[in-house]
Amino acid sequence: MLKKSVTEISEDLKSLYIETAKKLKGSDRRQFMAQVVQGLGIGGQTFAERELGWNRRTIRKGTEELTSGQAFIDGRSRSGRKKIETKLPNILEDIKSIVEPKSQTDRSFKSTRLYTRITSEEVRRQLIVQSGYQEEELPSSETIRRKLNDLGYSLKRVLKSKPKKKIAETEAIFEQIEKINREADEGSISPLQ
Fold first, then answer.
1. By its UniProt entry, which InterPro entries does this protein fall under (predicted)?
2. C-alpha angle with apex 81: 61 to 138, nearest 5 degrees?
């Protein structure tokens, strides 16, 4: 018994196939395409390539996945930017050596995280100074901040120094200075006393 050959399908069905394939990814998409082509019968691959804009190699890969029952691992999992540790293998150890002396544990011992007051920008500067990295090869301070979090360090906000509160003697000192200045302006005391 021969399978039917495809001659025509409606425009609605074409657009449904195309939109569905666009919404699917990876193995699901390939297997969907293969099922559609198998349903079309003899000449289905040619028809799908010409009318639906699908790639024959993708359809064949989907057909192999359907017959074997196993999805093929495609190269997408290996694509993208590599971690900074692959480019600079010692970076995590160097970051630890800079941050460790300036870290402390949680006072309440509720967590195992370490707290540090050094900023990620300062860690980046210290990597250049202490470890000899070049400015261009180092990641951004945001990446260093993420690596610090991955290593278990929590960054504490570095507080700006606050002015000390006035003490009681301050007013008396300024009153004395104002008195001396007034007397000097009036000429009642000589400036070299």
1. Transposase_36
2. 165
